[in-house]
Amino acid sequence: MILITRVNAEATSALDKALSRVGLWLNDLSLLGLLRDAGAEGLSRADLATALSQSQSQTLRRVKPMEKLDWIARTEAGNFRLSSHGRALELEASGLAANRSEAWLDGVLDADEISQLTSLLRKIG
Q1: CB atoms within 10 A of CB 46
Q2: How far is the CA of 24 from the CAs of 32, 57, 62, 66, 71, in angstroms?
Q3: In the chain, where do the E strands start and end?
Q4: 99 Cβ contact list (under 8 Å, min separation 6)
Q5: CB neighbours (10 Å) of residue 79?
Q6: How far apart (Å, rounded) are the C-alpha atoms in residues 112 and 107?
Q7: Residue 35 near residue 66 (C-beta atoms within 8 A)
Q8: Are 69 and 84 in contact (CB under 8 A)?
Q9: What is the model's pLDDT at position 101?
Q10: Predicted structure pTM score
């Protein structure tokens, strides 16, 4: 378990560094990705909090600055959804994260090992 924790910390640090170019942290990208997946109807505060494993008040504190930056908007029902700016940012940031992840693993694992690792992580994630 300690090894997984160490690898997670190293990966998060590498991704945070890459995402800093667009003003995001990895946990911000995770939130934006959840809203991307929710589509136009978005997610209620309760559903978003559950997905983030946070309280509703913690979730609202995370969302408010993103609303002010026009990355997140509200539906007529009050759900959170990505704005057009948020969709563009999430797409760019996802690309940066994917490129950084590949570069981080490149030279350490070959393509087959990366595929195996991905499959194993999907089983536990």
Answers
A1: 10
A2: 10, 21, 12, 10, 11
A3: 72-74, 80-82
A4: 18
A5: 18
A6: 12
A7: no
A8: no
A9: 85
A10: 0.84
Q: Which two tokens stand for residue 28?
A: 């911000």
Contact 16, 26 (CB under 8 A): yes
What is the Cα 61 distance to its own chain's centre? Answer: 17
> What's the residue count for the chain?
125
pLDDT at residue 67, rounded to an integer = 97
Domains and CATH numbers, the chain: 2-124 (1.10.10.10)
Closest by Cα among 91, 100, 99, 90 to 10: 100
For the chain, 125 residues long, the average pLDDT of each consecutive 10-residue run is 86 93 95 97 97 96 97 97 97 94 84 88 83
